[in-house]
Input
Amino acid sequence: MVQPTPDHFAGLEHLATAIVLLDDNRRVVYVNPGAEIIFAFSATQIVGQSISDVFPNCDILMMAVNNAIKQQSPFREHEFTISTLRHQSYAVTCTVTPIDSPAASIILEFQPMDAQLRIAREERMLIQQQANAELLRNLAHEIRNPLGGLRGAAQLLEHELPSPSLREYTQVIIKEADRLQALMDRLLLPHRVPKYQPTNIHEVLERVRSLILAESPQTVMIKRDYDLSLPELIGDREKLIQAVLNIARNAVQAMQSHKTPNSQITLRTRAERQVTLARKRYRVAIKLEIIDNGPGIPADIRDRIFYPLVSGSEGGSGLGLTLAQTFITQHHGMIECNSEPGNTCFTILLPIETSAIKSGGLAQ
Output
């Protein structure tokens, strides 16, 4: 067999799935970056090793390799568990394909089940988000017209009342109409066309931090854990600020209502490599985490927190997280949440590459 060179495998470098190539003796000749990330090993550690040593005690994988070689056709094994030399276990689906190449004889293509579940969850969230946006837009338009008439009628009535003391009732109507009008404006806000420009994610976070501290100077501490080497992304600065601010405000309100001792929010940024978002692979994305030590999200609404009008706090509009999800989706990003008492973490992934934005490919 020909000694493989990097040129032999150039086309595999950017695949989203984990690729391992074997020679005739079932020894590893190549591992792509996706496999290194998923299985937490480096190519230098395993190239040259037998696949049975890389994934020890995995009879299912060995049987799949044997079947593919025997039949000289692709063989797919669904949803089984493999372990590495570090005793880390992974649920995967694997396709074994014999190939006629001077550099390799067998391709192993692994798809982690958690990645597949995540893609499916993203698709469900995108469909739900689109349905939410349509519902909110229609609701806002239906309410705005009669609301304006109600307010106008209250103003006219106020001028006709014989006693000034009665005007406090018309003022209640006017003020409540104004409050509902502001709510309708918030419902329609996400549909403003984003203004994309180079944006520093840490400037976004510092703006959110200053706003939160101004609103709650004595009740919450904000810890910063930034990776200052992160590059700028192309985004709508105001919408990103609003998305993060909505999440942080929810955290503050929850901690205040439950009188959480030593209330703290952590803003953390990191680089995330080889990320798949909305079925597109990105080499680098910004990973932003908003973590609080509050009471956690109630279990009965945990799966519905991004739906409109779902709120865990009394008097809440239930729109903050819906808007946050909309704004992040407009940046081809993703937002998800893990919560338990004492630790709630919202994770936002934002791709750095700008090709989708420049081509007009982002959701408007």
